[in-house]
Write a structure and sequence with these properties.
The structure is a single chain. It is built from twelve helices and three strands. It is mainly alpha-helical and 235 residues long. It has two domains: 155 residues, Ribonuclease iii, N-terminal Endonuclease Domain, Chain A; 69 residues, Double Stranded RNA Binding Domain. It has a three-stranded antiparallel β-sheet with strand order 1-2-3. The longest helix has 22 residues. The radius of gyration is 19 Å and the shape is globular. The protein starts with 9 loop residues before the first helix and ends with a helix.
Amino acid sequence: MPSTSQPSLYAILEEKLNYAFRDASLCEAALTHKSWMNETQLPERTDNERLEFLGDAVLALVTSDLLMRQFPGHPEGDLSKARAAIVNEAGLARVAEMLVLGQWIFLGRGEEQAGGRQKRSLLANAFEALIGAVYLDGGFTSAFQVAEQLLAPIISDVPSAASKDYKSRLQELAQAKLQMAPSYAVLSEQGPDHAKTFEVAILIGDKEYGRAFGRSKKEAQQSAAELALAIMESQ
């Protein structure tokens, strides 16, 4: 676990971001999971949920701008699909993994033992919070530059990412193979209103083909459909 008394340790992370925080406490807050706060209860610290809320909005704007400029001839519908493929949990977790962000996060013991440092939802949330922290620390230009640099590998995959509508592909395959349409059931909702996590199961007939989490019902459905599609294509 990172040390609360050595903010200079963030220099390694800052090098990966190509950004140096003026206020190290913002970086520290972005990396603080609520499970750590629940155990330590330090009055001077905050968890990363508010920064995550802010970073989510910043990333949506940055991604929209980048897509508009990189694909000037694409219609709004294609750009929306591309943006959703980039700033969803899987895409942001991929960026967090590139940063090895899991090693920096302050986690409670229970979350640590549950493999929190490898959880896609936790990593994606921490990355959003980090972008929110950069925005507050250095303004939109700094946040844009950091996000643009880190999202570049994903943006370059947009033509294939935008086509990954797993629900539509699964619908076609299920109809062709089983003459049945998939259905989706919301199993649970967790977290505050601004940062909910949904668990969705996918059913074809009376058989469950998988379940997945997402920051929206739509995202969870897509992730579940991706799992079900892999199962059906292997059969």
